[in-house]
């Protein structure tokens, strides 16, 4: 992988591959055993196993030897490369880069979710106004598109929702290229230095990547 490429890995955690707890660290095993339901435990183990195997392939180390550090917001990090992951339903998306900070978000579009209170609470005034101006049929899919941009950006920064979703604005546009950062009151210098892209995964999934660079990089999507 060269500096101009970001690798994206799509992982199906509903497959029938056996669990491989031998890859996990002691603290990961403790976390796995805290899950009440077996389905949640299986998802955690499969996600961590896939993450370790993918990162090990770049770092040329055994998967069970990787040591994760956690920042003050709980984001895992490993020396030698940048990565981020997101999961929705039975899918996980993992982004890996040698040089740039990356964040990904994977959202499952669920018709039963009442998204309006979430938009009122978490979106900026600019975003809420633009969203409300859309035809009614376009508002729900656009909500997920805005939300995933905001998630990907704040995860790339390393803070997540604590950054303050209403304190910055992203593009509200229907085209696949209509996305990006348009305002950030906490870090206005970020404008023009972050790239956003849609990842077409189908399956009623919205997938967005955000990364710190002044120009678009090559995105290479593959299955684990």
Q: Please, could you describe this protein's structure?
A:
The protein is α+β, with helices and mostly antiparallel strands and 224 residues long. It has one domain: Ribosomal Protein L22, Chain A. Helix content is 30%, strand content 26%. It contains 5 helices and 11 strands; from the N terminus they run βααβββββαααβββββ. The two termini are 16 Å apart. The mean pLDDT is 91.
What does the secondary structure layout of this molecule look like, with pairings?
Elements: E1 5-12, H1 26-33, H2 38-59, E2 69-70, E3 76-77, E4 82-88, E5 91-97, E6 102-108, H3 116-122, H4 125-132, H5 136-157, E7 168-170, E8 181-184, E9 194-198, E10 205-212, E11 218-223
Parallel strand pairs: 1-11
Antiparallel strand pairs: 1-5, 2-3, 4-5, 6-10, 7-8, 9-10
């Amino acid at each position: 992988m060269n500096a101009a490429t970001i690798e994206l890995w799509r992982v199906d955690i509903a497959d029938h591959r056996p669990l491989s707890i031998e890859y996990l660290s002691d603290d990961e095993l403790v976390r796995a055993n805290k899950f009440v339901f077996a389905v949640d435990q299986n998802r955690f183990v499969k996600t961590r196993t896939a993450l370790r195997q993918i990162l090990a392939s770049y770092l040329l180390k055994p998967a069970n030897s990787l040591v994760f550090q956690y920042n003050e917001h709980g984001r895992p990090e490993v020396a030698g490369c940048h990565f981020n992951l997101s999961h929705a339903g039975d899918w996980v998306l993992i982004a890996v880069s040698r040089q740039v900070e990356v964040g990904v978000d994977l959202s499952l579009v669920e018709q039963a979710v009442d998204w309006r209170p979430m938009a009122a609470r978490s979106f900026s005034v600019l975003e809420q106004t633009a969203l409300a101006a859309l035809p009614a049929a376009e508002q729900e899919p656009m909500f997920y598109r805005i939300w995933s941009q905001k998630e990907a950006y704040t995860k790339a920064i390393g803070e997540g929702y604590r950054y303050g979703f209403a304190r910055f604005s992203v593009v509200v546009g229907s085209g696949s290229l209509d996305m990006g950062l348009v305002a950030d009151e906490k870090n206005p210098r970020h404008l023009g230095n972050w790239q956003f892209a849609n990842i077409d995964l189908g399956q009623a999934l919205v997938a967005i990547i955000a990364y710190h660079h002044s120009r678009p990089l090559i995105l290479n999507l593959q299955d684990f």
